[in-house]
Amino acid sequence: MKKPLMTIRFSTLLCLLGMAFASISYAENTQSVAVKTTVVVEKQIGETLMAYGVIDPDPDQVLSLSLSRAGLINRVWVRLGQRVKRGAKLLEVITAPDARMQYLQAQSAVDYASLELERKQRLLKEQLATRTQVDAARKALRDARASLEALHQRGLDRTKETLRAPMDGIITRLDVTQGQRVQADTSAMLIAAEKRLIARLGVEAEDLGSLKPGTPVTLVPVFVADVRVQSQIREVHAMINPRTHLVEVLAPIPEQQVDHLVLGSRLLAYIHLTPHPALMVPRSAVLRDEQGTFVYTVRQSQAQKIRVRTGLERGNEIEITGPLKVGDFVVMLGNYELHDGMSIREIR
């Protein structure tokens, strides 16, 4: 019995469609993508932290000048921020009358104690005084002289005194004015050593684990961009500054470079952390999807997707960590067209 013509034609069509799909599937399985690969290399790489700061006097090289006696500030020869040379005039102080009177009374007490000791010694020779009385008079003279010497050290023996700079420096604080009456032990000013400056930097608290004394630092004055100062960390503080909410780090400025800098100037600092070995690949080799970052390696002319984590960047290269080693090949061009297991061919 003959089959209808319609049934034969439909069967033939199904057969042809099956052959077509098989051809397409075979073509997809045998299709390859042209890519360019590179080798995973190991390099020494270090992170650079950026911080801001200010130029301050070295706190270890700042002298405080105080007035040892009460008096009147008769003259002030310096101003805040002024450079002074060793021996330069700073202040003229007139001793207060009551302070001067205190010294004169101490001088009178010494004179009286001296005469009293002589009298007791004469009476001892005439057997009209005891040796104990002579010893007491001698002690009273010693005490009176000690009191007079203490007042002499405070300068109460002088009606007027001129304070002079003890070293070359900069006036960083001035607490008195001309015509001001002051009490004893009043702070007059601070003088910072002219050639001893530091950079006071602020860093985030989470970066403290990477910092230590001796870490190299490059300092760049904000308003003198062509100056580069090479230094290293001297101190890392252990508390957060309540004003800046940062942790302070100090770096000394070499004496030969302080002439380019001014106290109070702002700084940009590059802190160079200790380098470490890292696996490096071009940035173009690293791709990202919803699950994270990955690269394609080459396994028997096929693309294999490898999950990695990225780290520091340097130029056009980026640090990666994952199941890779030095010498492995990764795809750097053409990787956007790949999927896991796809055949690839390398172009030169």
Overall pLDDT confidence: 86
What pattern of helices and strands is seen along the backbone?
HEEEEEEEHHEEEEEEEEEEEEEEEEE
State the end-to-end distance.
65 Å
Let me know the number of strands. 24
Strand content: 35-45%
CATH domain topology of the largest domain: OB fold (Dihydrolipoamide Acetyltransferase, E2P)
Unreliable stretches, pLDDT < 50, 5 or more residues? 1-8, 19-29
Number of separate helices: 3
Lateral strand order in the biggest sheet: 14-13-17-3-12-16-15
Question: If you compute it from the alpha carbons, what radius of gyration comes out, rounded to the nearest whole angstrom?
Answer: 43 Å
> Can you tell me the overall shape?
rod-shaped
Main β-sheet description: 7 strands, antiparallel
Supply the CATH class of the largest domain. Mainly Beta
Kindly report the oligomeric state of this protein.
single chain
Q: How many separate domains make up the residues? A: 3
CATH architecture of the largest domain: Beta Barrel
Notes on the protein architecture:
The protein is of the alpha+beta class and 348 residues long. It folds into 3 domains: 33-44 and 277-346, conserved putative lor/sdh protein from methanococcus maripaludis s2 fold, CATH 2.40.420.20; 50-59 and 194-272, Efflux pump adaptor protein, beta barrel domain (Elongation Factor Tu (Ef-tu), domain 3), CATH 2.40.30.170; 60-193, Beta Barrel (OB fold (Dihydrolipoamide Acetyltransferase, E2P)). The chain is 22% helix and 42% strand. It has 3 helices and 24 strands. The protein has helices spanning 5-30, 97-125, 131-153, and strands at residues 32-39, 41-45, 48-57, 62-67, 71-76, 83-84, 89-95, 160-164, 169-174, 181-182, 186-193, 197-203, 216-221, 229-232, 235-240, 247-253, 266-272, 276-282, 287-289, 292-299, 302-314, 317-321, 329-333, 343-346. It has a 7-stranded antiparallel β-sheet, with no helix packed on it. It has a 6-stranded antiparallel β-sheet with strand order 2-18-22-21-20-19, with no helix packed on it. The longest helix is centred in the first third of the chain and has 29 residues, at 97-125. The radius of gyration is 43 Å and the shape is rod-shaped. The two termini are 65 Å apart. Residues 1-8 and 19-29 have low confidence and may be disordered.
